[in-house]
């Protein structure tokens, strides 16, 4: 009840300041803050009035610039009301599905931007209509531009603009990766990081992971998708209890952290976008667990475009069944083929600067 009252009070204050706001950022929870942090700092130095919204309870980013107003708007009816009554210039978010469910556009916001939080394909990994209510989609690479064009051409929508942005997480990984250059693990360190869905590879195989470390003398970092933890909190509490005294297994639930990616020798995943993050900075093998491809867009086949996450599977490593993974020593020294991921990402090393420049340009237009 207290949080509802506080959110209601925040809402009243927020709607008062809206008319004077240049940029509204909605970061659904702390898992996505890494995609906004540098951009916020850059924008704040240009004397823009910025509002930062989140739905995560008891979380506030550290060291937000003074000209950034912070609001926790919750996840229920108050958030829905806030979205429909926002006032301001440019809205930026990594949350898709605007207009499909509870979260609607506000007529008093001039421009909506979608910011990528993954390199996976737009026409496969997201719902049909996920980007229809955005005015512009910041694209991480050429495949996103091509996919967005296909989505727009198959619909009766007015054109959604694309902007060649890049991928801020790649920039962070490359920058932080220099700290790990030349470091070597005493034992092989394997990162387990599947995507989320009906089947959870992690909680379904807790005992097998424990046996695996003993059989093959390796360390595991288990990094679940945040949505998997939300869907099965009891399963992850059980996992945490079972590995509490096991020095060979670490549970990493901090999505903003890049250390687990940078310190690992091998990645094990299924269809997760972490594949790109890992290979981009490590150039080391990826083990793909054989599962059905995750297609969330019911119109996927209409576009006649392969999903990038399918296209790279056999180029970056090996596809194996669960049984083969748990019963085989996967001490692979190199990938079967090399793939130049640098050409997959725009503005590598300077994506936030590109995003800042575009938002400043749009701010002149919206002003």
Summary of the model, kept short:
The chain is α/β, with parallel strands linked by helices and 367 residues long. It has helices at 2-17, 37-44, 77-85, 142-153, 168-177, 206-216, 226-231, 233-242, 259-263, 274-282, 308-311, 313-316, 322-327, 351-366, and strands spanning 23-27, 50-54, 68-72, 88-93, 109-115, 136-139, 161-164, 189-192, 219-222, 249-251, 266-269, 286-289, 317-320. The two termini are 39 Å apart.
Q: What is the topological layout?
A:
Elements: H1 2-17, E1 23-27, H2 37-44, E2 50-54, E3 68-72, H3 77-85, E4 88-93, E5 109-115, E6 136-139, H4 142-153, E7 161-164, H5 168-177, E8 189-192, H6 206-216, E9 219-222, H7 226-231, H8 233-242, E10 249-251, H9 259-263, E11 266-269, H10 274-282, E12 286-289, H11 308-311, H12 313-316, E13 317-320, H13 322-327, H14 351-366
Parallel strand pairs: 1-2, 1-4, 2-3, 4-5, 5-6, 6-7, 8-9, 8-11, 9-10, 11-12, 12-13
Helix pairs in contact: 2-14, 5-10
Please describe what this structure looks like.
With 367 residues, the chain is of the alpha/beta class. The chain has two domains: 2-167 and 347-366, Rossmann fold; 173-344, Rossmann fold (3-Layer(aba) Sandwich). Helices cover 34% and strands 16% of the residues. The chain is built from 14 helices and 13 strands. The strands form two sheets. The chain has a seven-stranded parallel sheet with strand order 3-2-1-4-5-6-7, sandwiched between helices. It has a six-stranded parallel sheet with strand order 10-9-8-11-12-13, with helices on both faces. α2 (37-44) crosses α14 and α5 runs parallel beside α10. The mean pLDDT is 88.
């Amino acid at each position: 009840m207290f949080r509802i009252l506080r959110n209601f009070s925040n809402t009243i204050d927020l709607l008062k300041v809206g008319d004077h706001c240049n940029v509204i950022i909605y970061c659904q929870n702390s898992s996505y803050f890494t995609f906004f942090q540098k951009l916020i700092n850059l924008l704040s130095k240009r004397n823009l009035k910025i509002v930062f919204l989140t739905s995560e309870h008891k979380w506030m980013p550290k060291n937000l610039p003074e000209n950034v107003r912070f609001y926790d708007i919750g996840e229920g009816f108050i958030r829905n009301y806030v979205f429909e009554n926002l006032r301001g210039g440019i809205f930026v978010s990594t949350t898709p599905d605007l207009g499909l469910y509870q979260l609607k556009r506000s007529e008093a916001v001039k421009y909506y931007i979608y910011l990528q939080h993954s390199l996976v394909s737009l026409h496969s990994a997201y719902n049909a209509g996920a980007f229809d209510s955005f005015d512009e989609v910041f694209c991480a690479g050429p495949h996103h531009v091509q996919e967005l064009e296909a989505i727009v051409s198959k619909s009766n929508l007015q054109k959604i603009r694309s902007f060649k942005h890049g991928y801020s997480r790649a920039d962070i990984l490359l920058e932080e990766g220099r700290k790990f250059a030349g470091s070597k693990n005493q034992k092989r360190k394997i990162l387990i990081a599947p995507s989320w869905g009906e089947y959870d590879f992690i909680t379904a195989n807790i005992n097998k992971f424990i046996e695996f470390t003993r059989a093959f003398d390796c360390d595991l970092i288990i990094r679940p998708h945040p949505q998997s933890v939300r869907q099965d909190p009891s399963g992850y509490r059980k996992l945490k209890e079972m590995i509490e005294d096991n020095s060979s297994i670490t549970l990493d639930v901090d999505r903003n952290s890049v250390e687990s990616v940078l310190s690992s020798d091998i990645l094990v995943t299924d269809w997760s976008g972490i594949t790109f993050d890992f290979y981009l900075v490590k150039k080391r093998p990826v083990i793909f667990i054989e599962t059905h491809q995750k297609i969330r867009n019911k119109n996927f086949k209409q576009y006649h475009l392969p999903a990038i996450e399918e296209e790279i599977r056999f180029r970056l490593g090996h596809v194996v069944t669960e049984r083969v993974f748990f019963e085989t020593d996967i001490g692979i020294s190199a990938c079967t083929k090399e793939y130049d991921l640098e050409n997959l990402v725009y503005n590598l090393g300077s994506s936030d600067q590109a995003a800042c420049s575009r938002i400043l340009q749009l701010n002149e237009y919206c002003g």
